[in-house]
Amino acid sequence: MLNKKNFLIVSSVLFVLFFSQLLVAGFIMNTEEIKNENSTLERNGVYTLAYETSGVEIVFGGDFAYHEISAWENFNDWWEENYSIEVHDPGWGFVRDVIVEDIDGDGEHETIIANSGSTIHIFEHNGTDLVEAYNMTHPAWSNAQVVTLAVGDLDNDEDSNLEILAGTFDFNFQSVIFKKVGDSYHPIFNISSSDSRNVGGPACCVGDLDNNGDLEFIVTEELPNVDGVSELRLFDWQTDHWANIRNYSFAKGAFHNMVRHIQIADVDNDGASEVLVVHDQEWVHILEYSGGYFSKSWSCPLLTENVESAIAGDITNDGLIDIVIPDSATDVVYIYETVEGSIMNTFNVSLAHTSTRWNCMDIDDLNADEQNEWVCVYWNETAFPYMWVSVFKNNTLLLQKSTGFLEASAVEIGNYDNDDAGTISTTTPTTSSSGGFSIPMEILAIVIIAPIALIPIAIVVRRQHR
User: Fold this and answer.
1) Confidence grade of residue 157 (pLDDT, cut at 50, 70, 90)
2) Across-strand partners of 286?
């Protein structure tokens, strides 16, 4: 029998359940509203103030859970996501590398994406969205896992259409050069290992290594274990073909023998190019190329284990190249500068709870002040979702927040949407969600009316049980 006490209990429970569901619904609706507003920040004018933007964005490559790239715009020295696009491929769909570059000579940047499926995508910006202009693959690839990309005039023909070099985990052709022929890109040069086992080619780079004014390129090969493979191969254009002019072998170990990152730059500021290498067994070091031979000239003395990445660039804005090395063993990023001809550790910055898993960096002028910033993306094991980003100018932290990705292995600084630096004027939207979360008036009305409407029903039920 439903007595007065039970009646009050039932009414209270119904009210609490109903109101709780509406609160959850309101929170979800508002969360999606905030997400949608942030993701269309620049295009839809959802803020009420005017913002200064540099016209340069940070572009992240997402993980297998998101299958997307995400672009963050600069607003008054702060960065927020204002665009993202999904990139689906056969295989894992993991975005492994991103390049923002004008590869067709039209004066506007394209966004080139390496996917862990078997496809390379080229996107152009149409003023509103990224639109796929080209995609390319190799007939021999099957879930090849394209890992790294590099672009340049590799055949020195001075054509405005640059060649694209891809390093992959395909066991037939570890590295491939693509060239635009007619209206599409085609593989024109295949590089295979002399080892018949399942060798991969994870890293590649382009630069003027012999300092003669034209470009060379480096590809790498890797097979795990002490009897595996670990080497770089240097190629140069010679009149009408590419020639493999020199190889260099690294130490091998019981597990991976991978080159994680490779870069051609004047790393020691001596006026000639060197090769910066991040290797599983030999960690971070510099290779000199002189007289047609490679020799190791420097190794980072502070590391006690292998690292995922390092990068060379001018982060101190003194006109000289620096070396940036995140060390997950100490949660410290080591900064090396050239001081009186020697490479020295001059200062460090801290990153909380970093990991060797998926960290990457880039260096460029982010806020159009003719000074470089450096971006570090890293795994923060204490905060979900785990991939975080920190932006520094010199040793000053400008930004630190989650990227929204569970994992990410690519970051690029560049003007992907070809916009100009300046002021973005925004208007107040018809609905707003600044601060906390809001519930529309219609839902509030239901919250108030519904419990009142339940009272007569409860009374009827009570009378029937007298």
Assistant:
1) very high
2) 276, 298
